[in-house]
Amino acid sequence: MCFTEKKVILRRFKTQKRVKMKTANIYKDIAYNENNPVITVLFETGFTKEIRIMMQKGTVIKEHQTQFPIVIHLMEGTVEVKIDSEETYLKKGDLVALNGSVFHSLKAIEDSIIRLTLTKYDETERIIREIN
What's the rounded Cα separation, in Å, for the pair 32 and 8? Predict the structure, then answer.
């Protein structure tokens, strides 16, 4: 590559627009449903998908597994999580990281807000199918 080609490539790189910051508020527009958890996609980046799941007390996400790793972050409330039939309780601020292929289910012990982080390879539609 000659010197002028390098200058052209560098100039093209400098003129490309940078992706602006994405923001969301997990506590905005809270809406619970007595029959099913409520799912909202907060935003997608080049490497993750951030999803809010609102669970009214008593609602359940039946046992399922994911193909890719996930992170569950409890923002509000208390949730019973069963991981491979082992029960644990998450309280506000708790995080759980699960590898793919791990069976798990969730039950809201009180009204709860969950932040779910998916890899960019996972499908948001899968979450909706699993819950409904």
Answer: 54
What CA–CA distance (Å, rounded) separates 84 from 52? 23
H/E stretch holding 128 reads helix 124-131
CA 82 to chain centre: 18
pTM of the predicted model, to two decimals? Answer: 0.82
3-state SS of the chain: helix, strand, coil percent to 5?
Answer: 15, 40, 40
Q: Which domains does the chain have, with CATH numbers?
A: 24-131 (2.60.120.10)
pLDDT digits (tens, 9 = 90+) for 39-91: 999 999 889 999 999 999 999 999 999 899 999 999 999 999 999 889 999 99
- Measured CA to CA, the distance from residue 38 to residue 113 in angstroms comes to 10
* CA 52/CA 113 separation, integer angstroms: 7
Q: What is the DSSP string of 8-26?
A: HHHHHHHHSPPPPP----T
C-alpha dihedral over 43, 41, 105, 59, to 10 degrees? 140
